[in-house]
Amino acid sequence: MKDASPQTIFLKDYTPSDYLISKIHLTFDLDDTNTQVISKMNVSANYDFKSLKRDLVLNGEELTLNKIFVDGVELGADQYELIEDGLVIKEVKEEFILEIHNTINPLANKALDGLYKSGSIFCTQNEPEGFRRITYFIDRPDIMAVYTTKVIADKAKYPVLLSNGNPIDSGDLEGGKHFVEWLDPFVKPSYLYALVAGDLGLVQDEFTTMSGRKIDLRIYVDKGNESKCDHAMESLKNSMRWDEEVYGREYDLDIYMIVAVDAFNMGAMENKGLNIFNSAYVLADPKTATDSNFFGVEGVIGHEYFHNWTGNRITCRDWFQLTLKEGLTVFRDQEFSSDMNSRVVNRIANIKTLKSRQFVEDAGPTAHPIKPSSYIEINNFYTMTIYEKGSEVIRMIHTLLGADGFRKGTDKYFELFDGQAVTTEDFIHAMSVANDNYDFTQFKNWYHQAGTPMLDIKTSYNEAAKEYSITVTQSCKPTPGQDEKKPYHMPFGLGLVSKDGADFPLKLKEVFTAQPQIEENILHLTQESETFTFTGIDHEPVPSFNRGFSAPVNLKSDRPLSDFVFLMANDNDEYNRYESAQALAIELMSCLVKDAANGVPLKLDAPFIKAYGELIKDESLDNSFKALILDIPSEGILHQAQDVVDFENTFKVRKFVKETLAKTYEQELSAIYDSLNVDKEYSLSPEAMGERELKNLVLGLLLSTGNSKYDDLAYEQFVKATNMTDEFAALTMIIHSDSKYADEVIEKFFIKWKHETLVMQKWLTAQASARGEKTLGRVKELLSNEVYDKSVPNLVRSLIGTFTANYTEFHNTSGVGYEFITNQIIDIDKLNPQMASRLAGSFKDYKRLPSDLKALVKTSLERILAEKDISRNVYEIVSKTHA
Ligand code: 0A1
Ligand code: ZN
């Protein structure tokens, strides 16, 4: 460890900064290893100067300090002090101009934080604390300043020089250099600062805002990739229009720029007027990108655009408030995607992500509330919880207030807090005052408590009285640091479905509280245990719980499995049709996993097989929806239902169920494949995407029959495919089914696509996710393949990250998988701590492993902790996992 014991930072210790910086002018003279930075800042006391400490403490990391001037006079060595991770200017005045000259080495910056090089492009990443790696600054989000930037660079190598805001000056300089100066008129925190320089291709378009202003839209990419920007540009224009229509928000600058880079730790970054994107979320054409990639581009473009209001115009006071901008912006991008595509399919996809990734986080060693109360390394808190659960919490507010009430609330939020750095309390305050002082007191537990609540539901029918009751008991398991949980206020969608499939009108027998207990089929749950009795129910209904997944919870009930079968076919809530199919399969497959462990021969439940067949044959279903509902629960989802995770038998059972269903319905599935596998002009319409999705799901099922004719079919699809969705699906299935064509397609795909790094990422993923003991050897071999580079996070995620999700191989009882990943974490941590700590998260199941695997993981965790110089990032994850 660098620090003997890394410091924990607490929300309760927040205090406003003693000093403010209202204006900053930056000059960069760019050079690969020796970039000169001059920063000129207007500093002033934030409070009564007499009460303040006279030392100004600035953050700074990996910087070389050259000179300091205060009001134009250079400081002597006794007037400042370099401290670990910063600089102290002693005895400052109430108001002064501070000028600092320093140098940085972008080429050596493999952490991809601050100013770095991605290939030949200079770019920045400053959220959350990257700016301190550019120059000395009070690097916290409540310091909001107006930024001007002069970028100087070699004109031939870096013809394009960008920063936030609008260009205000440019010209040639001596020695083949040139400069461009930028001014961003909006105050912003340092984490939204950006700079880019390169020899970039440009795609341009225009958007006219609701007040008639013309916005210059620009996407900058590596030359040669210009033709892959159409979808990103279309998505940007759609986002701009959508935010005007749904939230009344207009874009504010005259220019909106997006730059795509290959080396980026995350998806993208919302820097004011100059978004920097992982190229995977900009570049897409049918030949190289799958339908899911197109979908991802639209969502991330939307997400970053929506941040302009929810994040940039109104930002976070401190990093504990991260969900203020992220939960809200994810909610906004999810709704945007739902409006652009099929709403139910998008909602199911979002819930699948939440359940398979956030629920696991909430049940593991790093569980934290959406508003954490402490952290060691803030970069570890860009999590599924802050983002996805954060979005579900916003969605519940939307459900509680209704669309109009929610819009009144956001209008109020913008009215009260524009230009400020605020808290989640401020957001709730705006929502409340705009809605007759709606009482969010209990609802706020969602912000402070970690863990996924469990609802245990008991039902009873009183035939004589024609009354139906449900008793809901809520609980939430202890999470690290939180043993006791208070009950949550949650909206709970309910339907009581009659024999003929219609919903009974819901009439409560008694109303107990001042707040309404039911509105538009949404019950308000508030108590640890409560009973709701409905009248006028003339026969026993089948209840449909948590419709639309109105609250992010797990459910347990006394319903017979036949209810699930009924709801799969009859629920008026499409989401719950899907959910019932999943719940039934989870229930049955969980029993089969136990059978497998006990050596009991596997047998699949006949009513389930029948119900699955009904879905296959149901021609009224939309193809995308059908593909989702026919996709049996993933291993990860099945593991969640196990106290001790059984990787081998879970894999075995899933394979068995797929094979049984596929063999039973081979003819029907084959007919579906043939009907969808027709030559058609490629289209990105939801219908066309649905056809490809169902076709590929069906091909996967057919392959699991083991009949070799489907190996030939998959090979034929691979060879003939005219788009990446079909080509990649076939590649993956051929590799995963260990078909005789596997080596050939791996080779062919490589030769065809080796110059396209995004496609090579898919190639790595398909191989690292293959089952069987030879996979690890293959992954190790691929580390030295020409297309792999451990300093590019996308490649690490594709090869190493994918292997950690390959349950049977990563958790191989020999321990070789753990050993490999442990070595990778230690190695990558030296370059990129953020990447390494994400990989370290793959040990999250530690406490639920069988004892032999647990002992192996323990050794791995201890080996990492014993390493000299591990980063704070990895330390936090590994020590919490080990605890
Ligand atoms: N604010 C970005 C996410 C992001 C966070 C950190 C980064 O680098 C360490 C990069 C991007 C978003 O929500 O899109
Ligand atoms: Zn975001």
Annotate the secondary structure layout.
Layout (H helix, E strand, L loop, with lengths): L8 E2 L8 E11 L5 E11 L10 E4 L4 E7 L2 E2 L5 E4 L2 E4 L5 E10 L9 E5 L2 E5 L19 E10 L5 E4 L2 E7 L4 E12 L6 E4 L1 E9 L5 E9 L7 H18 L7 E7 L6 E2 L4 E5 L12 H16 L8 E2 L5 H19 L2 H20 L11 E2 L8 H34 L3 E2 L1 H10 L11 H4 L5 E9 L4 E9 L14 E8 L20 E2 L2 E4 L3 E6 L7 E4 L8 E4 L3 H10 L3 H24 L8 H12 L5 H8 L4 H6 L6 H18 L1 H11 L9 H18 L4 H13 L3 H13 L5 H12 L3 H12 L5 H9 L10 H12 L2 H4 L5 H14 L3 H8 L10 H16 L5 H11 L1
Parallel strand pairs: 2-12, 18-19, 19-21, 22-24, 25-32
Antiparallel strand pairs: 1-23, 2-3, 3-9, 4-8, 5-6, 5-9, 7-8, 10-11, 12-15, 13-16, 14-15, 17-18, 20-21, 25-26, 26-30, 27-29, 27-31, 28-29
Helix pairs in contact: 1-2, 2-3, 3-4, 3-5, 4-5, 5-6, 8-9, 8-10, 9-11, 9-13, 11-15, 14-15, 15-17, 16-17, 17-18, 17-19, 18-19, 19-21, 23-24, 23-25, 24-26, 25-26
Bound molecules: O-methyl-L-tyrosine (0A1) and zinc ion.
Written overview of the protein:
This protein is an alpha+beta fold and 883 residues long. The protein is built from 26 helices and 32 strands. An eight-stranded mixed β-sheet has the order 6-5-9-3-2-12-15-14, with no helix packed on it. Strands 17-18-19-21-20 form a five-stranded mixed β-sheet, covered by helices on one side. Helix 2 crosses helix 3 (322-340). It is globular and about 90 Å long. 49% of the residues are buried. O-methyl-L-tyrosine binds at residues 125, 127, 265-270, 303-304, 326, 379, 382, 834.
